[in-house]
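Hi, here's the filled form for the chain we discussed.

Project: internal
Contact: R.S.
Residues: 431
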Amino acid sequence: MGGQPFFSGREAEVGVFRQVLNALSEGVQEDATIAVEAPPGAGKTALRSQFIEEMKRLPPMENGRRWLPVSLDGGLALSPPEIMASMDGAIALQLSDDLVKAGDPASQDESAKGLAAFLGVASLRNALSVAKDIQARGFSAMGFSLAAKTEPRPETIQHAYRLRGQQWSNWQVVLMIDEAQKISKAVPGAAPSTLSSIHQGLAAGAPMSFCAFGQPGTFAALDEVGVSRRSGGYSMRLPALGEREAEMVVNRCFAQYRVEGGDAWKRALLERAEGWPQHLNTYLHAACTVLEKSAFAEDHMGDASNSSLAAAIALGDEARVKRCQERIDRLNKSGRRFERHARALAPVFEAAQGRPLKDDVEDFLSDGLGLGADRADAFLSAAEACGFLGPDAEEPLRYAMPIPSLAGHLLGRALPSVTGPEPPIEEEGDG
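And the returned structure, exactly as it came back:
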């Protein structure tokens, strides 16, 4: 399919992120923490990518610092060397991009000097080749190993900070932590407060903010490791998309690919997705796949009336069922018989229209399934992590089922059929 990736439906969250960046740029805040928590499929990855795009569009700050998003897996965020290496890798890649994209000899020379200084050498031979190699292979050296040869090898993390501080001070760093629920004392070898100490330790060299994306439990995990929020913290829980936001996503997608006559398709896709971001993405991808067969240009999907809506829905249903089963498989790996417990609990959610009281769920687990308190807590934690259930946003005394149709999938129920206009049947001629 032609065109550029589009993003829609989370404008409010993007607006908050822009406010944080503006506050950092204007010196109102020196650092900040943003935590985004949502079950699987709520669109955390897409939102994280959009946040990074927002940073790329920003000009350098008035003090000359450039914005630098640094991606980091939550399982590594407790290791100071890993965080430092991730920062150095992001800087090296950005400086390499500057050199490769430099449009004139003067810009190339300036970029080559910047990359050489970062690597701790006076100058680089074949600087462009080095930059392209970094782009192709990545950059894995530890931060403190890049110091000039005249500097002694650091013996402490604090010493490493000082050696790298000159390079880090040119950047306004935002650590983009994925799977942030992994930041917990329960992680083997975890060092509680590592993030907090690095946050404070690097503040003088490179102002650093955190943007953590994770499944349920992320907020609690961040509290466990003592992440500082002294200059302000922002918490976001990603709900299902509202009717207006979901319609906006479909409209933007169809407009981007210039789909004609797609009103019936829009209605069917929105009905099928039920406002869940991953479902919506699944059905949009299926629709574009079917529509592409009738496209007459790379960026034009053609007339939807000439393609089969039923075929698009069937393709989307197949992918949706597969994703649901993957979630249940994850739940089953978390504990013996957890899948069986979920199947037994599904009718309780259906009877309460997807929002049972927590007490009723807990009573069912203890009285109906005979689970002890520890086992029930373990199941509920795993069920929340895989997206089977979660706290109700409106009533804290209730559970909710964030992923539509997951209960029906557990009960083996087929998705309802979707009717819509089919493409006209072309009659064969005599000749």
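Let me know if anything looks off before we file it.
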